[in-house]
Design goal:
The protein contains ten helices and 16 strands. It is of the alpha/beta class. The chain has two domains: 288 residues, Aminopeptidase, CATH 3.40.630.10; 133 residues, 2-Layer Sandwich (Alpha-Beta Plaits). The chain has a six-stranded mixed beta sheet with strand order 1-2-6-3-7-15. Strands 10-11-9-12 form a four-stranded antiparallel beta sheet, with helices on one face. Helix 1 packs antiparallel against helix 10 and helix 6 packs across helix 7. It is elongated, with a radius of gyration of 24 Å. The two termini are 13 Å apart.
């Protein structure tokens, strides 16, 4: 047995016995309710992780994204970056996980923030998306270090915020500040829940926009004296349903997007507000509404350009303005990220794929996410192209009641991540059987 073989056997052996450890860390993270919005408990969560990583020899830094959306003294956008340097020059392998979770919502049969263990699963908000993945990554690196692996370069872990609301106070801010720029970092793995046998190499594009239709107020008993903005918005909805959505459904992509239904372009109506404010008390006033606002969520393909995506909605609205008396509108951009896809031949894709084949005994599947995640900031702002998502958990469980992650899947993912780390650090043969 070679020295490399002994290292790999040692690391995998340690992870064979790590089920209780990875489950316990996942529980600890779930029990810190880092709900976004508004951005609760970010500091206690990063401090929990910081203490653990400092005890393993990492240099831990806590950095606040001052001035980013939602950042204030009550809800500071606090991120953690922990680094352990090796014995000399070499690659930096970075694991990034977001700690924020969406609100629990209704329909739970277990306590959302208890971290309940049952039937080989850890339940709770964020178990799948993505505290289980972050826990698996940390336990994987701990196994590598405990095995006494000597390496050049560095290992890094970041625990970041606000991914669920665009990532501007987390990875987006860190990328702008140079934390994800080569040569400081070479390879990034984001443990998002795409299943243990999948390597996620990118995501579809997204454009959120707000359409506001404009009218004129009048007494509700005499609507003919006003101009109802809600009726104008009804025309917008009908025209999108009639003309735009059927066209989007015919567009197919070469990107390996999962699930199958997301391989075409899609549009969702995220929110609709018109007339009197929703937070009013008492009975409504008899008013013709002079404003109605619609937020649309347009997901598009690598074959489409951002300009064309925006242009076809503008053309639809301009068409209504030309044919519908009194129709006026405003269109505002809310959020926009172009599609991204890492080269399947990139080192991090190969390393994780080889690890999957060794641990699970079957080839990895390369997929693309239907929604965006923090790769968008690392690739575009940080200009680091060797970035993928890989982690335990099923994507369809994210944001659902009774969210869970399987403990066995976390252990398997930790093994894959450990083997990929060894490969990227230059411990040859780590990903091969």
């Amino acid at each position: 047995m070679t020295d490399t073989d002994r290292v790999i056997t040692d690391v995998l052996g340690r992870l064979d016995g790590a089920a209780d450890e990875v489950a316990a860390l996942t529980q600890q993270l779930i029990r810190v309710p880092t709900v976004n919005p508004p951005g609760d408990a970010y500091r206690p969560c990063v401090e929990l992780l910081g203490r653990r990583l400092a005890a393993r020899g990492f240099e831990v830094r806590t950095v606040r994204a001052v001035g980013t959306p939602g950042d204030d003294d009550r809800h500071p956008r606090v991120n953690l970056v922990a680094r352990r340097d090796g014995d000399g020059p070499g690659a930096c392998v970075h694991f990034n996980g977001h700690i924020d979770v969406v609100p629990a919502g209704r329909g739970w049969t277990v306590e959302p923030f208890a971290g309940t263990i049952a039937d080989g699963r850890v339940y709770g908000r964020g178990a799948c998306d993505m505290k289980g993945g972050l826990a698996a990554a940390i336990v994987a690196l701990e196994a590598v270090l405990a095995a006494g692996v000597r390496f050049g370069g560095a290992l890094e872990v970041s625990a970041t915020v606000d991914e669920e609301s665009g990532g501007y106070g987390g990875v987006g801010w860190l990328a702008r500040e140079g934390w994800f720029t080569p040569p400081r970092v070479d390879h990034v793995i984001i443990p998002e829940p795409l299943d243990v046998d999948r390597v996620c190499i990118g995501h579809r594009g997204v454009w959120w926009a707000e359409i506001e239709t404009l009218g004129r107020t009048a007494h509700g008993s005499m609507p003919f004296l006003g101009d109802c903005a809600v009726r104008h918005m009804a025309a917008v909805l009908a025209r999108i349903e009639r003309d735009l959505m059927p066209r989007l459904a015919t567009r197919q992509t070469r990107m390996p997007v999962v699930p199958e239904g997301a391989r075409c372009s899609t549009l969702n109506f995220n929110a609709l507000h018109g007339g009197l404010p929703e937070d009013r008390t008492g009975l409504p006033a008899p008013m013709v509404p002079d404003s109605c606002r619609l937020v649309v969520d347009r997901r598009y393909l690598i074959e489409e350009s951002p300009e064309a995506v925006r242009g076809e909605l503008v053309a639809l609205l301009d068409g209504l303005a030309a044919e519908r008396p009194g129709f006026r509108y405003r269109l505002s951009d809310v959020l926009a990220f172009a599609p991204t896809m890492t080269d399947p031949a990139a080192p991090v894709v190969r390393a994780v794929g080889d690890g999957i084949a060794r641990v699970l005994g079957r080839p990895a599947t390369e997929v693309v996410s239907p929604g965006t995640y923090d790769q968008k900031h690392i690739v575009r702002v940080g200009t680091l192209k060797d970035c993928i998502a890989y982690g335990p958990g099923r994507l369809e469980l994210a944001h659902q009641p009774d969210e869970w992650v399987a403990i066995d899947d976390m252990v398997a993912a930790a093994k894959v991540m450990a083997l990929a780390t060894l490969t990227l650090l230059g411990v040859t043969g780590a990903g091969r059987a």
